[in-house]
Amino acid sequence: MTAVDDEPGWATAKTLAEALPYIQIYDRSTVVIKYGGHAMGDEAVAKLFAADAVLLKLLGVHPVIVHGGGPQISAMLERSGVKSQFIDGLRVTDQATMEIAEMVLSGAINKEIVHWINRAGREADVRGVGLSGKDARMITVTKARRTKRDPDSNIEKVIDLGFVGEPKRIDPQLIKALIFNTEEDYIPVVAPIGVAETGETFNINADTVAGALAGALNAKRMLLLTDVAGVLDKDGKLIRSMTVKEAFDMIRTGVASGGMIPKLETAIEAVDSGVEAVVILDGRRPHAMLTELFTEHGAGTLIKP
Q: Is 259 part of a structural domain of the chain?
């Protein structure tokens, strides 16, 4: 290292130069980002996330953000005096719960993320656009079906979760019109709400929405930002990379457990639908997305075909 390398700015320049090969890899590629977990409840982390999303756009990437909001919905239900019913850990979404869920997801959370993106991108005129799956018939859903085996009769019984849906059809036209706009820099921010063909509004798991959108957009990467470092092996060590088959085996053998199972299932489905790779990473760490996309080290666990 020369004396000049210690001067302010030189280390930053070196980092930027080292990122060039990776910037070129993702140039004009679509990256779908699931934003949720505890990272969403921290304003400082939320501002950093928005700034990083703006930076991605300015570097030629097309970020599409899908957000969750379970804790915020629970807090609003409690303040509103609406009691939640759970079956095997899954919230039953009745009409009153659905109305509050849509208000929180499409309203408060969605617009807050858009606001931080607009603030971060003001000088370069990068703009966040708040949407839900109801806009432009983006997400058509079917009612989610869950079953439970009765321990006495050994008969599978259908569990009615109310207005909980699963994507049946994704129409990405509006998203494509925004991200491929040659005159303006837009970042779509999508709330996980959809509509059935009969007209009812449904809440959808945000991970599932992100995976379905990533597949419909033929995304190069899908980033699942969560509050864990990634997928851990049986010894608790981070797995840097795995195939879809290895991810499936982790579920089958019970190495993956709890909330990691649906994330791996979402990753498997996304890769099977055409997404080049999915990364599960810790969204609480500053600049996790940049580390994953633009350095040789990466962050979290990469799941590939």
A: yes
pTM over 0.85: yes
Q: So what's the pLDDT on residue 71?
A: 87
What 8-state DSSP symbol labels residue 163? S
The helix or strand, by DSSP H or E, that contains position 64, with its residue range, turns out to be strand 62-67
Question: In whole numbers, what is the pLDDT of the chain averaged over residues?
Answer: 92
* pLDDT confidence of residue 42: 80
Within a domain: 32: yes
Look at the chain and report how many structural domains it folds into. 1
For 72-96, the DSSP string reads: HHHHHHHHHTPPPEEETTEEEB-HH
Write out the residue range of the structural domain in which residue 258 sits.
26-304
Give the closest residue to 263 by CA, choosing from 249, 278, 277.
278
Q: What's the CATH code of the domain at 39?
A: 3.40.1160.10
Asked whether residue 21 is domain-assigned, the answer is no
280's tokens: 């599960």
Kindly report, residue by residue over 3-46, the tens digit of the pLDDT: 556 677 888 899 899 999 999 999 999 999 999 866 676 888 89
Say how far residue 84 (Cα) sits from the centre of its chain.
25
79-121: pLDDT as tens digits: 999 988 877 666 789 999 999 999 999 999 999 999 999 999 9
Which residue from 169, 36, 193, 188 is spatially nearest to 99, judged by alpha carbons? Answer: 193
Q: CA nearest 269: which of 305, 226, 227?
A: 305
Residue 118 lies in a domain: yes
d(C-alpha 73, C-alpha 20), whole Å? 41
Which residues, at least 6 apart from 153, have a Cβ–Cβ distance to it below 8 Å?
A: none
Does the pLDDT at position 53 exceed 60? yes
Rounded to whole angstroms, how far apart are CA atoms 74 and 14? 46
